[in-house]
Amino acid sequence: MAAGVKIRLSRAVAGEAVIHRMRPSSARFLLESPPLFLPLCTVSDMSTPDIEAVKNYLLSLQALICAALQEEDGKAQFLEDSWERPQGGGGRSRVLTEGAAFEQAGVNFSHVFGDQMPPSATAHRPELAGRRWQAMGVSLVIHPRNPYVPTSHANVRFFVAEKDGAEPIWWFGGGFDMTPYYGFEQDAAHWHRVARAACAPFGEDVYPRYKKWCDEYFFLKHRNEPRGIGGLFFDDLNEWGFDKCFAFMRSVGDHYIQAYRPIVARRKDTPYGERERDFQLYRRGRYVEFNLVYDRGTLFGLQSGGRTESILMSLPPLVKWRYNWRPAPGTPEAELYEVFLQPRDWLKGAV
Predict the structure, then answer these.
(1) Model confidence band, residue 121 (pLDDT cutoffs 50, 70, 90)
(2) Residue of 111, 143, 153, 255 with catalytic role
(3) Closest CA to 127 of 157, 170, 87, 158
(4) Whole-angstrom Cα distance, residue 172 to residue 248?
(5) 60, 249, 251, 247: which is closest to 158 by C-alpha?
(6) How far apart, in whole angstroms, are the C-alpha atoms of residue 277 and residue 300?
(7) Residue 162: which H helix or E strand, with range?
(8) Partner of 105 for a Cys bridge, out of 93, 96, 215, 333, CB 3.0 to 4.6 A?
């Protein structure tokens, strides 16, 4: 553990700050209702970023997602780990392990700041050099127990860099993507249908643009294959002004559970054996490779002095590598590569 980092462990209160006084039935109604923006905060018309409003939303989103996942698992509970970063800021990590549905689920909130940008940020944004900065976000990765349930990832984040006598430079980023081990077209279509719904209020071109960016971003160049079936990915978003950009980030965050939870419920009790489990562990290796080699959030966190345990909570608890392995033709494992790990419009013909 890094010197100066203070840790507090406790049981995470399901739904804190959002549904902390709701009965489970009320929480389920909220989570399964059509997507909506929760009245977490009010932002007046402005171009100046409201950092406190963003932070309040992110904390509430973390609580809501943890409540939904814990309810779906039905066995394990999230442990909360609050930490402080010696260079400035800190976070609240929540991790569920050894659950009935989830082998490991990590949902992290962080708000960190400093006086000097890390190289990963200034490499393509040299105008950020010499500015004070703040970064905050919620990032999560869910590794299911059953191989027929896909792994999912989501992230929503906000960044602002300031210096005296100049306008702040700010932007939003985030998205969500899904990584199946055994593909189901029903699940893929549902995932992308909800992604499209998250984008719909902001323009017809938004979903196709951010789906394409997701396909391009979550691609393992050294393997020449995508990580999964994609979803949404956006970054450097400030062109709409603060209010609309913030609203879009909230829409993406609010739609994640609506995209993922029905798939978990549909697949978590599917019978499986050693063969399916072995393939799941092998494919998890691709997840590890991407996160350690390409992922912007991982690189930024490590280079900015973030807490390593929280940054690397995205990695699966168990994983396998096998030299030059290929699935046998005509098997369900081969179908993943031939059908699901291919560029595709999953909503073609869908309403």
Answers:
(1) low
(2) 153
(3) 170
(4) 9
(5) 249
(6) 32
(7) strand 151-162
(8) 96
Compute and round to an integer the Cα radius of gyration of the chain: 20
28 is written with which tokens?
Answer: 């389920």
| Residues in Cβ contact with 21 at an 8 Å cutoff, skipping those fewer than 6 apart | none
Lookup: tokens for 288: 């590890």
Output phi, psi for 209, to 5 deg. Answer: -70, -45
- Interatomic CA distance for residues 45 and 311, integer angstroms: 34
- What is the average pLDDT value for the chain, to the nearest integer? 85
Q: For residue 148, give Cα distances in angstroms to 64, 218, 346.
A: 25, 21, 19
Alpha-carbon span 151 to 153, nearest angstrom: 7
Active site residue 20: no
In sequence order, what DSSP letters do the residues of 69-130 get, joined into one string? Answer: HHHHH-S--PEEEEEE-TTSEEEEEEEEES-SSEEEEEEEEEEEEESS--HHHHSS-GGGTT
For the beta carbon of residue 276, count every other beta carbon within 10 angstroms.
18
Q: Could you give phi then psi for residue 282, rounded to 5 degrees?
A: -65, -45
- In this structure, are residues 169 and 136 in contact, taking their beta carbons and an 8 Å threshold? no
Percent residues over pLDDT 90 in the chain: 67
Taken in order 20, 25, 27, 29, is the CA torsion positive or negative? Answer: negative
- Whether pLDDT at 67 is above 90: yes
pLDDT at 225 over 70: yes
**Which of 14, 119, 117 minimizes the C-alpha distance to 71?**
14
CA gap 132, 310 in Å, rounded: 23
